[in-house]
Structures are given as structure tokens and as C-alpha cells.
Amino acid sequence: MPTLAKNLSTKINSKISSIPNPAIRSFNQKISTIPGIIKLTIGEPDLNTPEHIKRAAIEDIKNDDSHYAPEAGKEKYLEAVSKYLAKSLGVTYDPKSELCATVGVSEGLNIAAMTLLNPGEKIIVPTPVWGVYFGIIKMAGGIPVQVDTSNDHFLLTPEKLTETLENEGKGAKAVIITDPSNPTGRVYSKKNLQELAAVITKYDIFAVSDEIYAELIYGQKKHYSLTQFIPERTVLLSGLSKSVAMTGWRIGYIAGPAELMKSMIKVNSFLISAVTDNVQAAATEALNYGDQDYVAAREKYQKRMHLLQDGLEKNGYTMATPEGAFYIFAKIPSKFGCDDVAFASDLAEKAKVGVTPGSYFGAGGQGYVRLSYASSEENLKEAIKRISSYTESN
After folding, report:
1. What start and end residues bound the annotated signal peptide (predicted)?
2. Which CATH class is domain 66-290?
3. Which of 327, 300, 310, 240 minimizes the C-alpha distance to 24?
4. Class of CATH domain 8-49+293-393
5. What is the pLDDT of residues 221-259, one digit of tens each?
């Protein structure tokens, strides 16, 4: 095994070494060694990719589609994305100049940060939020400005955005909106987004809209997007990972104005050259014919959400009712204090239930834990029993 040459460790990019490893995955790995643990930690569907989507990839392989795809993505995939966005949001994107295939939304976020941010520029991040945002922004040389939304039902308000832009976020280049939210499951209304759009326009900044959970919204709630109101300054990011259980396929897309997309496609070509051929074929099938797949998944998740919410509330845990995605962000009963890392660690050790500490999601997350209900009803019922026993005995 090679050992790094003496003194070279001090020559590694200090910006990278100063960024901590993603805390969510690190915590998940740590508790994975506990025998018999039920993990409600990672945001990954327990469902399998639908058969018709898998068949599309297999057929693509059989047809020897094994050469470099265009750097922006294959024509059929980008056309499918364009048609899907027109159908779901009523927005128009030219597949030839306003769309780009990505390796999941994670790569899309990296592309957006690298394209929008010059070194030292700020980007506003409403929190609690998926903690990977912070590292991505810092690697691009930017400065994430956290805005605690916990006192506003976990939604960024136009008043809070204005206040931030006038103070610690003064001069910010952009704001990120995650809708539906990870970790809270909260969903922005049409009115919410219209009001935010007015502020974003007034201060002449970009909007980055992460909509990976858009298909998983419950009840009468409807998904709206900033691109419906300010398309000229919005970068829309989404993909197939959550809606049709394609996390391991790593496929997503970026949509935005053509002038901006030229730069984003350039960044994409340097990062990955192109997205895998057969993955794009599978994603094309999912976009064109997968509506019933995510409808069925959504029904399962909603049932599980009610099951877990009821079980937690009976044991003194409080939360803003999730309206989308597949997470519950629950406040720990006061008798346990506010140290969510200690609580989650103890729950894993003693009750054998894995949950994610809320402080990993930034300001406003302390004293909370995130539970993913992308798990079987059997697991959720057993997890509730164990949480109930732990809560009563401690």
C-alpha cells in the first residue's frame, strides 16, 4: 500500500481539507455497525426501479449504445425533460439550448455553484437543509449564508429574505430553495413563491431551485416552481432519483436561460464529459411513461408518513406535518434536552433505531432529528415500538 510522500500532506488543497465530510453519511456509517438496527437515516427509496425503466436500459445496451453522448445530454432525454416540464409546470425549455443532463442533482448543484459564484461571493441558504449544500458552495469558493426558518414553519419568507439581503447576506449572488424540503417535507405555496420571486427580482439575484422531490407531494397540495414566475433568473434542478427509485442510476438535469446554460454545459463537460448512455435511455422512459410509478410511490409514502407521525406524536415528539418528500423532522421531547447528536447516538445504541441529528442540517436544526419513512411499514411499526419504549424508560 502506498504511503503519501513526506510533507505532501501539507500541499493538498487547503480549501478541501477544511471542509468536513458529509455528516449525514458519516453518522449513518457509524451506526450501521450496530446489530439489528433499523435505519431511518438515509434519504433513499426502499422501492425498486420499475421494470419498464430497467428494460429500456437493457435494450439500449443490447443496441450497442456505448459511445460518448453529447456533453449536454442525448437528444431523446433532453426532449423528454422538456416535454415533462411543459406538462408538469407549464414552462417551456428548448432541449437544444436550455437543458443539460447531469449525474444526479448533486452534480447539478456543483455545476450551479461553480458557474454562478466567484471566490468569496455569498449564496443564501434557508435552513434546515440538506447539509451537502454547504460543502458544495465552499468548494466552489463561495460563502453560504444560513437563514434559520424554524420560527416560520420551516419556509423562507419574503420578509426574512429581504432582511438577510440587507444585512449578513448583503451582496449575495443567489438564493437556494429546496421544494419540497429535505429535511422537513415542507412545501412552498404559489403565493409563497410569487412573494419570494418579487424580492429576488428587486435585489437582482439568481434563484437556484432544487425540486428533486417535486413528484412526491401529498393531498391537495400542488407543486409550483420559481421558474414559473422568474424563469429569466432561475436555475431549476431535478432528476429521477426519488420519484421512481433511481438513486443508484445517478441521473438528473438542469434547466435555465440559454445564455447561462452555455456556461453550465461547459462546466458539465469538464466534470464528467457526458452522462452514461443507457442511464439516459432509462430516464427517458421514466419521464415519458413513468407517471403511474411515482403516483403509486407517493401513495405508499403518504400512508407511511401518517403511520410514523402518529406514533411519534403519541410519544411527545412534535413536528410540522410533512407535505412532500419522505421525511419527518421531529423535535425531541424536552426531557432529553437539545443535544440532538447525543440523543440520536443514544437512541441508536439503546433502542436500535437510526435517525439523523437535526443539527447536521444547519441553523434551526438543533434539538430535532430527521426520520426517513422511505422504509417498509413493518420497519416503521417496529421502529415506533422501540422509540416508544426508549422514550418511556429514559
Report:
1. none
2. alpha beta
3. 327
4. alpha beta
5. 899 999 999 999 999 999 999 999 999 999 999 999 999
